[in-house]
Amino acid sequence: MLNIAVLVSGGGSNFQAIIDKINDGKLPCKIDCVIADRKCYGLERGSSNGIKTYLLDRKELKKNLSKEIDTILEGKVDLIVLAGFLSILDSEFTKKWSKKIINIHPSLLPKFGGPGMYGIKIHQAVIAAGEKESGCTVHYVDAGVDTGEIIYQEKVSVLENDTPETLQKKVLEIEHRLLPQAIMDIAEGN
């Protein structure tokens, strides 16, 4: 069984999607812990599901954040899942955990990725650019920001009457399905 750690910075709805799939017996893995880089609802989701939680304040730890995460996870997990984690992991960490860290990003990378592209900002940029489609990407994490090898992408149409909020909702529905699917495939060795 695959042991995973989930890293969050916000509400943790993708984290909840993983928990639900595990509880339904549809995802053969165990969540060892959830780590947040700021106080957030994702930690409450972990606690209420009996999962170990860690708060590593990014403002206090600064450049030592990745080192602290590594200390917690060393020898305990097979895969690190970034589910709305906003801090950038350092290159030493991403090299050590190469092909063992995945991220979900709410755009069709390489479009609308990189520093500063997160949350509603992405959907605002997609609409401002006049894109006809958007979606989400599950990718391996490397030393760049949103530059790792793509595992999965799924598209949604951007309609004329879409707002950043309606587009975000459509993309999030796909994220909740695609991230657990990527974890399942990795657990099965695919």
From TrEMBL:
<comment type="pathway">
    <text>Purine metabolism; IMP biosynthesis via de novo pathway; N(2)-formyl-N(1)-(5-phospho-D-ribosyl)glycinamide from N(1)-(5-phospho-D-ribosyl)glycinamide (10-formyl THF route): step 1/1.</text>
</comment>
<feature type="binding site">
    <location>
        <begin position="12"/>
        <end position="14"/>
    </location>
    <ligand>
        <name>N(1)-(5-phospho-beta-D-ribosyl)glycinamide</name>
    </ligand>
</feature>
<feature type="domain" description="Formyl transferase N-terminal">
    <location>
        <begin position="3"/>
        <end position="183"/>
    </location>
</feature>
<dbReference type="Pfam" id="PF00551">
    <property type="entry name" value="Formyl_trans_N"/>
</dbReference>
<dbReference type="GO" id="GO:0004644">
    <property type="term" value="F:phosphoribosylglycinamide formyltransferase activity"/>
</dbReference>
<comment type="similarity">
    <text>Belongs to the GART family.</text>
</comment>
<dbReference type="GO" id="GO:0005829">
    <property type="term" value="C:cytosol"/>
</dbReference>
<dbReference type="GO" id="GO:0006189">
    <property type="term" value="P:'de novo' IMP biosynthetic process"/>
</dbReference>
<feature type="active site" description="Proton donor">
    <location>
        <position position="105"/>
    </location>
</feature>
<feature type="binding site">
    <location>
        <position position="103"/>
    </location>
    <ligand>
        <name>(6R)-10-formyltetrahydrofolate</name>
    </ligand>
</feature>
<dbReference type="InterPro" id="IPR001555">
    <property type="entry name" value="GART_AS"/>
</dbReference>
<dbReference type="InterPro" id="IPR036477">
    <property type="entry name" value="Formyl_transf_N_sf"/>
</dbReference>
<comment type="function">
    <text>Catalyzes the transfer of a formyl group from 10-formyltetrahydrofolate to 5-phospho-ribosyl-glycinamide (GAR), producing 5-phospho-ribosyl-N-formylglycinamide (FGAR) and tetrahydrofolate.</text>
</comment>
<keyword id="KW-0658">Purine biosynthesis</keyword>
<feature type="binding site">
    <location>
        <position position="62"/>
    </location>
    <ligand>
        <name>(6R)-10-formyltetrahydrofolate</name>
    </ligand>
</feature>
<keyword id="KW-0808">Transferase</keyword>
<dbReference type="InterPro" id="IPR002376">
    <property type="entry name" value="Formyl_transf_N"/>
</dbReference>
<dbReference type="InterPro" id="IPR004607">
    <property type="entry name" value="GART"/>
</dbReference>
<keyword id="KW-0614">Plasmid</keyword>
<feature type="site" description="Raises pKa of active site His">
    <location>
        <position position="146"/>
    </location>
</feature>
<protein>
    <recommendedName>
        <fullName>Phosphoribosylglycinamide formyltransferase</fullName>
        <ecNumber>2.1.2.2</ecNumber>
    </recommendedName>
</protein>
